[in-house]
Specification:
The protein is α/β, with parallel strands linked by helices. The chain has 18 helices and 15 strands. The chain has a six-stranded antiparallel sheet with strand order 2-1-4-5-6-7, covered by helices on one side. Strands 8-12-13-3-14-15 form a six-stranded mixed sheet, sandwiched between helices.
């Protein structure tokens, strides 16, 4: 459930904190007081896009924090792990969103996430329904998703979707191969040229250009290397005043010191070691110089090789690693084209088998949907009769066609509100009040089947007459047996059913407009319902009517709990 919601500097809200309760939470207030701002704030923490013009005038940012407590956090924790976010502790999930003029920061359990991450989390937490969302009920995609949710067909539909994707992947691969012969021949000639050009270069490895470059630098400077090497060897060992001869003189002196000083022997050994190193260094330099290739033909070969490798790099990706990858890709594509006829035959067989599998799985899905459609129609019809359509009927019509991403079926919700009227497609109904009640009936049925803990109804009772308010309130009360429900309403008949009642007020202070929200105490609830019935001028009649409404709901407030 949603435990708390805090909103700061959003539109006319300066700073409010709301503590929600289980069951049916009703939110009332005068038109324009800011009730729907709360729903908008909740939408922000659930991943809706931010309108930065909503930042309160004079503030540089707005923020929303929602704290949820989940009786079973398993599904959320699995998603949090996938999103690399911290898991819930003792079932508590904290979502914060801060919006400035240029950025948005999203935190889940104090770990940053993306807007897409918030949306995925929100899909598991809250189902929001606003005054215009009943239009979604007219969408064929929504209708088939709703039917599958009611029938618990997610696994079978996912299997169908996987088979459908495999089928279309094969179709796409076949289409890529199935080009005009002239085009295929041109591609094969071009790929053959590229493959041969790279293969003829006989590239040793991805670092050959570096190896060749180093050797080229050595061979190109062979004369200077020999000159320097000779000077080094002269200075080390070959000249009369070489380092080796000087060290030999020092060694003789150290031999005499060794007889006179405790450290002399150690110094003599160090000198001997240095002498050996000097000899080895001189020999190494001399040997390296003698092995330098001074052949002009070798230098020419290295220059030609560098030019070739540079040309290939320029044509195929900028590095020898890219050249080798291009060779592998081109050779693979060439093989596909050379074996095109065989592959087309294989693909045709695979496509036929995949299509048969799609139809088989789709057939199973259709059978389950037919059964679910009958049960859904019966269930929604029963709920509609509680909402004033005593002789109304709801229908789910399925017809099969060619495979589509959602299955073999097209779905059409039908509705006959009165006796003697034919069943018509729901989208043909003009009355938004009727469609709102159909949506509420559907939500009531689904509430017993889905696991989303929080349902939000923002003026779903719009365009519903006052005489139907009591039925709508009872229906929301039924939904609240399985879910926490937040309901923004203008109808006192609906508000009377709330187990918790909040009132939103708008006031002007110090030249600024502010919105606030507070729980309605038990003794003040009658007055709020009376205001909703007859306006600000309370009368004995409206007060008595409000008391009677509360009595009929048979929901006496618990001690210490806001009513």
């Amino acid at each position: 459930m949603l435990q708390t919601l805090r909103v700061q500097n959003l539109a006319i809200v300066e700073d409010i904190w709301v503590g929600f309760q289980p069951g049916l939470n009703v939110i009332t207030g005068e038109t324009g007081a800011g009730k729907s701002i709360l729903v908008g704030a909740l939408g922000l923490v659930l991943g809706e896009r931010a309108d930065r013009t909503l930042i309160r005038a004079g503030a540089d940012k707005c923020s929303v924090e929602a704290v949820f407590h989940l009786a079973d956090a398993t599904a959320i924790d699995v998603l949090l792990e996938e999103l690399e976010l911290s898991p819930c502790e003792d079932g508590q999930l904290i979502i914060r969103r801060t919006i400035t003029g240029s950025s948005s920061r999203n935190l889940v359990n104090d770990t940053a996430t993306t807007l897409q991450g918030l949306r995925r989390i929100g899909d598991l937490l809250v189902d929001m329904h606003g005054p215009h969302d009943h239009q979604s009920l007219l969408s064929e995609d929504f209708q088939i998703d709703l039917l599958d949710a009611f029938g618990h067909l997610a696994d079978l539909r996912a299997e169908y979707a996987a088979r459908y994707t495999e089928w279309h992947d094969l179709e796409a691969k076949r289409k890529a191969l199935d080009n005009e012969d002239a085009t295929v021949r041109e591609q094969m000639d071009f790929l053959s040229f590229q493959v041969k050009e790279i293969e003829d270069a006989e590239i040793e490895d991805a670092a050959e250009d570096e190896t060749v470059q180093r050797e080229h630098a050595t061979v190109a400077n062979a004369g200077r290397i020999l000159e320097l090497a000779d000077g080094i060897c002269q200075a080390l060992t070959e000249d009369d005043v070489s380092a080796f001869n000087a060290l030999a003189s020092a060694q003789r002196a150290l031999g005499e010191v060794a007889e006179l000083h405790d450290q002399g022997e150690e110094w003599q050994k160090e000198a001997e070691s240095i002498s050996i190193q000097i000899q080895e260094l001189s020999q190494g330099v001399r040997h390296a110089a003698e092995t330098v290739d001074c052949d002009p033909s070798r230098l020419q070969w290295l220059e030609d090789r560098l030019a070739l490798l540079h040309k290939l790099k320029r044509k195929y990706g900028g590095s020898l690693a890219a050249v080798l990858r291009h060779h592998q890709d081109a050779a693979g594509r060439l093989h596909d084209l050379e074996t095109r006829d065989e592959q087309l035959a294989e693909l045709d067989a695979g496509i036929e088998q995949a299509r048969d599998t799609v139809r088989a799985v789709g057939g199973k899905l259709s059978e389950k949907r037919m059964e679910s459609a009958r049960l859904l129609a019966e269930a929604v019809t029963g709920e509609l009769r509680d909402l004033g359509f005593r002789h109304g009927a709801f229908d789910v019509d399925l017809s099969q066609g060619d495979p589509r991403p959602s299955g073999l079926d097209t779905v059409e919700f039908g509705f006959a509100p009165n006796v003697g009227e034919p069943m018509r497609a729901l989208r043909a109904i003009a009355s938004s009040g009727e469609i709102s009640r159909v949506m509420l009936a559907v939500k009531t049925v689904l509430a017993q089947h889905d696991r989303i803990p929080v349902l939000v109804f923002d003026e779903i009772d719009a365009n519903v007459g006052g005489e139907m308010g009591h039925a709508v309130g009872m229906k929301m009360d039924t939904v609240a047996e399985h879910h926490q429900v937040l309901c923004i309403t203008h109808l006192p008949q609906v508000a009377a059913h709330g187990s918790t009642h909040f009132m939103v007020v708008k006031e002007v202070s110090d030249g600024r407009t502010r919105t606030d929200i507070a729980p309605v105490a038990a003794d003040a609830r009658v007055e709020e319902l009376a205001r909703m019935l007859g306006g600000r001028d309370l009368t004995r009649v409206t007060l008595q009517h409000a008391r009677e409404m509360l009595r009929q709901t048979q929901r006496p407030p618990e001690a210490g709990m806001p009513a």
